[in-house]
Amino acid sequence: MAGLSYASAVRIAAREMRSSRGKFFFVVLSVAIGVAALTGVRGFSASFRGTLLMRARSILAGDLSARMFQQPTPEQEKALAEIEASGVKMTSVTELLSMASAPKTMDPLLVSLKAVDPADYPFYGMVDLAPAGTLRDVLGPETVVVADDLLVRLKLKVGDSLKIGSKEFRIASVVTNEPDRLSGNFAAGPRVLISRAGLEASGLLAPGSHAGQRYLFQVPKPTGGAPISDSAVADLKDRLVKMLPEAQVTDYRETNPALTQGLDRATSLLSLMSLVALVLGAVGVAMAMRAHLQQRLDTIAIMKSLGARSGQIMKIYLMQTLLLGLLGGVLGVALGVGVQLAFPILLAKLIDVDTELHVQWRTVITGLGAGVLTTLLFTLPPLLDIRGVRPILILRRAVEDNDDPFVTAIFKKLRKNVAQIGAALLILAGLAAIATTLSDSATVGKVFSLGLVAVLLVLLGASAVVLGGLKFFLNRTRLSLPSSLRHGLANLYRPGNPSAALLAALGMGVMQIMTVYLVQQSVVSDLHISSAPNLPNVFLVDITNDEIEGIKVLLKGQGSVTAAPELLPVVSSRIMALDGVPASELKLKNFPKRMLQSISLTWFDGPPLGTTVIKGKWWTAEQAANAGKAPLVVVNDRTAERLGAKVGSTIEFSAQDTKFVATVVGISKVDGQHAFSRAEFILPRASLAGLPVVWYGGVHADPNRVGELQRALYQAFPTVTVINVAQALETVRAVVIQITYVIQFLAAFSIFAGIVILASSVAGTRYRRIREVVVLKTLGATRARIATVFSIEFAVLGLVAGVVGIGFANVIAKVLLTRLTAVYHFQWGWNAVALLGTAGLTVATGWLASHRILGQKPLEVLREE
Amino acid sequence: MTERVLSLSDPMIVVDGLRRSIRNGTRTVDILKGIDFSVPRGQFAAIMGSSGSGKSTLLGLLAGLDTPTAGNVHLNGTAISYLPEDKLAQVRGKTIGFVFQSYQLIPTLTALENVLLPHELNSDAKDGKAGLARARELMESVGLGDRMDHYPVQLSGGEQQRVALARAFILRPPIVLADEPTGNLDTTNGAHVLELLLNLNKKEGTTLVLVTHDPVLASYADRRIVLRDGVVLSDEMNRDAEAAGHAAVIAGGGSR
User: Fold this and answer.
1) Helix or strand or coil: residue A74?
2) Among A4, A297, A395, which would you mutate to test the B interface (most chain B Cβ atoms within 10 Å of its Cβ)?
3) How large is the ipTM?
4) For chain B, which domains are there?
């Protein structure tokens, strides 16, 4: 027998949908909201992330940079040439200190020279010039571009000559901001940009000169407008790290700790939110389809008695599912695209991000595919139930009791449910696959899937326990309870009640919404710290011990300085040995040996701002008092790793002519946001007593008034070098603030979508209640009474789901936040609010959904049946 | 009981030692305690019995909707009782037309679509046009030519049952099983439905088995099989059937 053609199945399925549009509204709505949230969140976050990464790239001026500490060997040069031949663009940036002078006055000034190839540099970002122009146009072999303070100090103007080395250059323009200011050397002296040809001509590049060399790389753009993939950058990075073992290779995500952290967390959170959107949509679909098929039991039995095989009926409903999934998917994608387009408009006031507004086809297809796939996956179990519908149902309502002995019954049940168990596994595998594909963060994908499985198992267990307990309890106390309470509770375990399914749906939903909330909150409060408006953005170098008090006074009197200055004493030193191994024999990681010759030691009484001890302990007062004899040191974690130092290691330092051995008592981690973060070795004051000190300082100045501060400092302390990174830091800060806005906005959106979906799941169970309401009414129950019964039922469901869901949300949030090195706090208040909110919303939606039914005349309903 | 031997020459339905017990808690209830009979091609047999006599269970077994505890049912030469569910579905589709007491129309399909459904489920596709033509023709013949696109809720009980009749005959099944087809209808409507059923039966040459507790309804049958407590109490040809004739039904005098 040829069976049912797909065309016929589709036809029958479509007919069925046509006659009961209202019922399918919930299914389509669930899929649509899920897909919309997915497409919207994903699409927007993809373009937002793209914009962010472009900014991050501009801070490095390339995709990658390799900071060289020595000239490349011939082999390395050959390998670099090979890389260039493969399409990667490369340019070198040389930074060195030099003297410059005005030819007329011959006043010399130490300047920080930066030689670039204006044809290539910068790969990303812009060099801001005053008057506005492009570097390519103004910088040639005969010209230089200088910072404003050089003009002030040498009393020059644009168009004048400046002598550098043996050659005179014309000052072509003033540089106000370089994209990679944060990535270069924080050298003393005003900036002078020079072309590579100009540098050659100046004769400054004598062998042995202390020039800092950086190579910038740009990975070729894929054709078709797609963004440069992270993996292409990572591949090149691996290659460079292997090729240039002595160089420091940095990619665009590592330029600034605040930015790196912001990007990492944004990626994780955005992944989490798209997954949540997807699963919530799927939950909605599963609930709606379940309710739908439950109502179709009679129809299925009739079809079977008319000669339909289970396979055929499944085919019909499968087609229906597909149609619904597709319909919801299309609607969802349309909505999602709308949302994606609406986000930048809504956010326009908060962020000036010009996310590229083209809708990516990939996102659309992913959304559609995910919608249809999750719909299919989640409708599998109810679809498989079709096989169990016995046609005899139409003749005889009574269901036979199971007459098998206990063990056989279990086996029978298992065997009967093999397909269901298979389906459950398939769903999990499918979800995991979708999650992995969608998630940009492997950690999030993994933690999320595991959490989902765990919460499902616990919820099913909890529902069995709660329902069993209720039954037991009610059997004992039957008559002593008020009857509406009894009825409401009994409703929960009555055969055919979707309590378990609803509990699973609600619990999962609450877990996800709460996870998003908790993770979002912690990440945002962290980001607020790193984008705090009073972090140092102007650095002072080479302050002598005699000047330090005067500097403090001057800074206090400056209106442009908005936060207490961070001042740190520096003692120059060398490392002679580590754990008894002489410096010359040490094996170092990505750290040139000659750096051991210039080590900065710092003293502090306690951990400075932004520094935390992650291994070992900060010294005690007693140890500090004794530190003159037994020196102690806390080492920065990166430095410790490069050196191979651990807690308990001993380091032999040599400062001036003093040699001493300090014991490592702790490894510290810095947030990179403070002047103090530059301290690599912190010792008690007593250990460094008597050694010559220079001070290093960081202050926060109003970015618009830095010039004012610079002039004041120059007048009072002409030898102190002032480094202004205010503009660059403002860029970083703006990006981080944008990240926090977007995260909060998207989290609110996901949470809202989640609540809508869950509400529609609860509402979807209302059709089941029609008959029940009719019977109760026929027996004389008032509407108020029926509403009470339902409220009790829904409140119990909401509370149980809330407890399990919120509990798991806290666990998952904790795991995720720990992985993200963010802090997790258990918040009683919010958790309690969430729990009550869950119960309240469940009751409210249950109420609203049943409202129409309650108002109906029994006969209308009976006729509709 | 001599007719039975004669009728075995060309039996459409053979019921052989049929038993059905159900377990209810700890008790086993024997609903059918060994039933044997056969129905020759083209015969109109009524199965009678009071409520609880086992007639609905017997009908379920005849239609292959249920599996017996022992014994077997042969339809058109095929033993069906222990066939797997999907094979049974096939047998049901090809061999049996069903008329139920409570109509059992699919509420989400229109009248015409309800009639067409068995055709779509069972025919070898392609001949969709022919199926549609036949469905329309049957709808006309049950007098519902103008109600084809109505949904079941928009039809009266009698109309719904006429749709069910049309549906039962669409695939020209050799057997039609009817379970109290007039049980939910008033006298006039019941008579009309019965008339249509008998007419269709005659026209299509179907073997008809009708389950009822109504002696008037049974009086139109060629044969009456009476059940009590799960056994056949009596099984006899209805000598008056022809005499009483369908004329009486058509005149509206019969039924209930």
Assistant:
1) helix
2) A395
3) 0.76
4) 42-67+84-250 (3.40.50.300)
